[in-house]
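Tutorial handout. Part one gives the primary structure; part two gives the three-dimensional structure as tokens.
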Amino acid sequence: MSDFTSVDTRVPFVGRGDELKRLFALFEYGGALTLVGPGGVGKSRLAFEAIVRFERDRARDVIFVPLSGVGPEAVFGSVAAAVGAREQVGLDPLDVINREMAARRSILVLDNCEHVPDEAGALIESLQRVHNVAIVATSQRRLDYPDERVLDVGPFDAATGAEFFRERARAANVELSPEDLPVAAAIVERLDGLAVAIDLAAARLASLSVLELARELETLRPYHFRSSAASDPRHHSLGKMIDWSLAPLDERAQAVFALASAFAGVFDADDIVALDEGEVPSTAQALTTLADRSLLVRADSKRYAMLTPMHAIAARMLGARSDRPAIEERFARHVNAQILRINDQLLTPSPGAAMQELHDRYDDACAALAWALKRAHDRLASVLDIATALVSIWAGGGRLREGSVWMERLMEQAGQLPQALYARLSNAAMRVAYAGADYQRMLALGPTAISAFTILGDRLGLARAYNALAVASLYVGKTDDASLYVETAVALYRAIEHPTGIGSALLNQGNIALEGHSDPIGARSRYLEALEILLETGPDAQIGLAYGNLAEATYFLHDPVEAGNSAQNAIRYFERSQSPSLMAWQHEIIGRSNLVNGNLQGAAESLGTAIGLLEGAPHPIYLVQAIESVVRLLVLQREFERAAPLSFAARRLRRDRRIPAIGLTRTEIRADEERLAAALGPDAMHAAAAQAQALDLERLGHIAASELSRQS
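Part two.
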């Protein structure tokens, strides 16, 4: 089950029988449902309880996505990251999320959607096409997407509210007597049956009797929680209740409550102390007291979280402090220090825990970047570690579009940075652009990066910049420029004796020879030189690339047996580095080699494996290559009518996506097209071309997989 850190589960669940039945039906049959009600009524707790009870007898993949601190531009990225989807260049993020969700039976909870109704609604509308997913959204108002189903979650009735009060009292080690029950019912009625208000009131039973509690509440004006949702989504009345809960606490506890609102996720005493330079013991005690009063939630033995209704009130308290600017600066610098520590751990042999912590800190990191951009000329340098570290998330998938927006904003404001920092940021921006296949953006950034690294005398940074420019130039058709850039990169890497860099640049030099100059002999020579170096020093992914490119060049040299052997070696290394799309590329080369040898059954099996790997994470280059090989298989079997639409679609995608000319040779592709035209005639070819216009990347993969299934 997903992490429901922001849901308070201390008190046993009571009531809501009809609502649970609606949710059970949703989980069983799929679809979407919006739980609508005022903040603090218990929507998140209801969703959690329904999942727990439903999952006792079943095994579903449960994904919980808290959206309370997420801006509109980050909703799709947050959901993609939560479901484990990797953003694919050229694909709509909704399609990427849909494909990931379609691969498993899931329950998706989108919590606190009221401030992003358009984005949440679009996501749910799209996901309803996936039949094996159930979606629960919680919101203070309808999301208004087509055919939205809504379940109103109202306050507790008198009997259920009294039961909830009694259970909450037991959590405070207080057992109500029969004489207390009528008083408890009166308290529940006064608090309009709102769960969070009852919780806050019952927390005081550790120091007050039920009668004393009732008398204290009588001194306050009526709260009228039911009407507050329409006037203020975060409840003026709830603010009064929180003030009442905080009033008996000392100054430190009240300060800690406000400071905690700076953090989007979990936090501990050290985090709070970093904001106001307080003392750790008193801060730790304050956190314990706040949790005992239900003003915070314990995430584990050291860390805490703040429920959404509390967070908005605490944030207003923090905003009213005269030292707020100093607190915001300390927050940004503290987050930067944490990210810097995490980034160091990402460089270790086992970076998994560090990457998870980076994801956990993501919203805080973005908040620090937003603070810096308000006055970038004197702030940006203090949080630059955040921007360069988040490239691991932005370029790694899931949040690529979001990262591109951040990088564009940061580069616009980077003119006042010292040269060394400007160079670092330029390099990070080029990495994000490369991940997004935005080669024109890379070429635009390149000269400024080179200028900065030259002024600094940073030959390693300069080598990396030239190497990146070589790739970008190749993919926009500037082969001569690419050759010059990569030669410079190789020379710089050799001068500083950087083996991994030399290997990387040699691989790019081979790619330019193969793809740009149609020189497989020169390419093979470069790949072998790179392989010799990388086998000594390189990571598995780089060694796999060396073998994979060698397989490609060897195929072009008409040696299918050796091409298949190199591909098998590449697969071993790609398996270690967990690179499914690159594994698919190598299975496609094996399939292609089998076609040359006349082993059509072996070709179908290898191509089926390749497309199976790509269906979960479609990569435009490798999928188009696989489609072209499927076309060749069908042509060899004289299945011309089936082959023609795939051929036209592959040609269109190669042109539209600017996919480099690797895979089958141009001569082979042209020969297949000529055979199709001769066999079908103009009218059938025209019909096939029209049919191909409707085939997007995903549909094309499904059709190819179906054709291969027929072959076996």
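Part three, for discussion. The longest helix spans residues 666-692. The chain is about 70% helix and 5% strand.
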